[in-house]
Design goal:
Length: about 290
């Protein structure tokens, strides 16, 4: 569990905050996951919305709270917890009802959350290529350099190696001016493999761990939603996963956190139109890349 130590935190005021505070962004997958969880639990919380498009998460104030500069971050009575899955696991202990981690399935659940977390840079790659145009998402080198020297750079008092991974993601995108076809195909294949693995389970049961809804349903629902937004053919490739997605999407607590349309929706529609004209949709990139590798 990534609970920060005082020495990791430079924005010291949060150490004296009481109650539950969440730093988050409306359109961020990890934030959406956390907000659905809070809704299902009926937990009251104080919102600190950061606009990622305006790079508010990279300002010294927030880098002083989460040295990784990522959302979400939770403050609970002065304790700072980062990493969405850790936040949810922590909240489950603090607010056990209704249970979203079935006691008997705790190991399966942690393994599925780990798998989900391991795919985070893949969902980001697909988002940056197929949901938002690169002119909106690119990160100038000066911002990356500033990121590297901002905040404590530590977790639990130790140098955090994850910061380099974050910086490298953006540098790689800058080198090519976009997410490359190979990277997009790799992401597509990883998701395809994971979702294929879920098919047998979801053909027999309503939810990923059985008859009851759990934390992993929330986490994978958010990914499924983002994959659909990127043009991934979820329902035709994985019918049982598609039906599971529709069941969750019919629930207001889920759907309200992933609003469709608006400016972001219009931008994605325009991007998809351009990609169709150029023959560079996700499906076309995947097929083309498969042919030549
Ligand atoms: N593993 C982290 C991933 C957090 C993450 O990458 N958050 C994204 C939004 S979904 C973010 O803050 N992106 C901002 C950036 O990359 O600069 C978690 O689960 O909390």
């Amino acid at each position: 569990m990534v609970m920060l130590k005082e020495c990791d935190i430079q924005t010291k005021e949060v150490l004296s905050w009481t109650g539950l505070h969440l730093f988050h962004f409306s359109g961020s997958t990890c934030s959406q996951k956390t907000r659905i969880f809070l809704r299902l639990k009926g937990i009251e919380w104080t919102s600190h919305h950061l606009n990622l498009a305006a790079k508010e998460h990279l300002k010294p104030y927030y880098m002083g709270i989460n040295p990784r500069g990522l959302v979400p971050a939770l403050i609970h009575d002065g304790k700072v917890i980062i990493e969405s899955n850790d936040i949810l696991t922590y909240l489950e202990e603090a607010f056990p009802e209704p249970a979203l981690i079935p006691a008997s399935k705790s190991d399966d659940l942690q393994a599925m959350l780990k798998r989900e977390d391991n795919l985070h840079l893949d969902i980001r790659a697909l988002t940056m290529r197929f949901v938002f145009p690169s002119f909106l998402t690119k990160r100038p080198e000066k911002d990356i350099t500033a990121y590297e020297s901002s905040g404590s750079g530590t977790l639990g008092g130790e140098v955090d190696p994850h910061r380099d991974i974050e910086a490298e993601f953006w540098r790689e995108m800058n080198r090519h001016g976009k997410i490359m076809d190979q990277q997009a195909k790799r992401a597509y294949d990883r998701f395809s493999e994971a979702l294929d693995d879920f098919e047998p389970q979801l053909s027999r049961h309503d939810y990923l761990l059985g008859a009851e809804i759990s934390l992993v349903d929330i986490a994978w629902y958010i990914y499924a939603r983002r994959l659909i937004a990127a043009g991934y053919p979820l329902h035709s490739k994985h019918p049982a996963v598609g039906a599971w997605f529709d069941r969750l999407h019919a629930k207001p607590d889920f759907r309200q956190e992933v609003p469709e349309g608006g400016l972001a929706g219009a931008i994605t529609s325009l991007l998809h139109l351009t990609q169709r004209v150029r023959g560079t949709t996700l499906e076309q990139v995947r097929q083309r890349t498969s042919t030549f590798t």
